[in-house]
Amino acid sequence: MATNLYELYETDEDLEKKGVGLQFGEAVFYVRRAGGTNTEFERVYEEKTRNMTSRVQLAALTEEQSSRILREVYAESVMLGWKNVTDREGNPLEYSKENFLKLMNDLPVLWRAIRVEAANHENFRRAQARQEGEQLGNS
User: Fold this and answer.
1) Mean pLDDT for the chain?
2) In this structure, are residues 124 and 110 in contact, taking their beta carbons and an 8 Å threshold?
3) How far apart are CA 42 and CA 60, in angstroms?
């Protein structure tokens, strides 16, 4: 168990920008960090909310409006792709912004899980990346 604060909280800037794979069942979603050194996330968010100049306007958004904007931000600045994702009938679903938006709209619980994990610093930790690299080297 890590006790050093750097091992617990220091993130790997490369992982934050180049991405990691998040596994949900058989599906793997490749994501950059939603925040941290992924400055594209903040830039796209600001671009999508540019016309909403005040906190009051942002606060006045319905939950659905806010979620729609955030799904678009993720599609453009966090998501890199996926594998083993299928449609409702089990047919392979090719990654695209449109398919991502539809899937997240159809599966709000998955959308929440991806948001949580893409923002979670632990998925982008330097110590974790080093440890996983060592495990790969030992295989």
Assistant:
1) 86
2) no
3) 20
